[in-house]
Amino acid sequence: MIDTYLKERQAESVGILDEMADPTGKVFPHWQKLAAYYERVGDRRLIELAAEVERYLKENGVTYNIYGDPQGLNRPWNLDPMPILIDQTDWLEIEKGVRQRAELLNIILKDIYGSRKLIRQGFLPFELIYNHQGFLRQVDKVRLKGEHQLIQYAADLARGPNGKMWVLYDRTDAPSGSGYALENRAAMTRVFPDLIRENHVRKLRTYFQT
Prior knowledge:
two-stranded antiparallel sheet, 210 residues, mainly alpha
């Protein structure tokens, strides 16, 4: 499977961004171990394992719905058994940027429900805040203990045309993504135990205990 993909990759346009291999079809160092694993598994077995993942999610009732959908339909949650790997150097840069973004949003949140210097000094239009349906007047001046008022933050990331990760969306209102991450890990651990064990995948326990 992987070998076939890499041969096809060499025939494609050089301008196409590939997470696994360079334009010549050479697998990036941080992908080599995983690529070898999937090559060892083989096409037929991988299809069977992907079906097992799908069945596990269905049996556990993992679904999603589109916000604002008038029909309110629950759709089956899909999980690709091929994960995206990020080089450690790239990840440290991403982590630094996401932390900075979360801290900025925390500062803005404290100000909007506190002294409102950003509004009084003209950095934020008051209409933008007071006319927004998400502004909760009931919790004005209400503070949690400590400096962190933003208790939940997640970011939707995608690779931009410049090769850098871009933040497409900040998510601060609901922790639903945490549940999907947990279900994804449970499914992969059950269906691909060797993959999880051999790659020393970090546990999610620390996040949920925080």
